[in-house]
Amino acid sequence: VLTKTIKIMKLQKAQRHQVKLRLGLSGASGFGKSYSALLLAFGITNDWSKIAIIDTENNSASLYAHLGDFNVLSLNEPYSPERYIEAIKTCEKASMEVIIIDSITHEWNGKGGCLQIHEQLGGTFQMWAKVTPRHQAFIDAILESTAHVITTVRKKMDYSMDKDANGRTRVIKHGLKDVTREGFSYELTVDFELINDKHLASASKDRTGLFMDKPEFIINASTGKKLKTWCNQGVSLDDVKKEINATTTLEGLRHLYLKYNSLKQQIHPLIMDRKSEIENTAQIVDNKQIINPKTIENNGIDSSSTPAIRSGE
Asked: Among 159, 178, 184, which residue's Cα sits nearest to residue 169?
């Protein structure tokens, strides 16, 4: 019954729900991506023990051990999407509140990453049909994570070979470009770009409105605190769970599923579990109504419908 209501198109008022942050840090080598990511993470959780960093940068996370007692998961080649996903799940199972992936570049352009996988499959355009779903599974693991996720990505100079009006070939610089599949930044809550080795940052994308079109600044723990405050505004998932558990009718569950449509991935299993509980309770009640207590007391004989047995008969 519930699955049919999912297909119904319905307008509803926009509502902010509590969300998990998806933050990006990009910059050239030496611009402070790992350090900034750790400060951001501490600002979000205020507990170093709840921070895990998936380190693909030759154990560079150990350089910042003096900051606090955070957790490190060293990820070496091959940098396949599946190994990244496994690392994310490992951090989630350990109940980490913030996961830093430092960096996602290797998943795309490292040994065993997507570009190399594509080349090994023959390098034809058709082979992207096999590689793209694997990369998308990695992106989905980030977006669907139960933790806040911070990703870092390397930048490199982007060039092109163009011909001028005289037909001569010229090398054109297009500036720094993220070394990952194009479009990843669209998935992020905020995408910070570190612009120099002084760790100055600016927001190239910002859904929070906290940093866009503001002067460059240095990322620190207070940056993370501001983001945590922003993402905690609105309806919490815990509050929605309480509403689901308090609902006693299937119609009420349908209402909640439509009401919190933006949280449907998180609440669908909860809705289905509660639906089963309500149906089971209803079945038990029906069974009790079918059984007449009087027939049980009289060994199955209902005296009201049985002729009286007179003495001597």
From this structure: 159
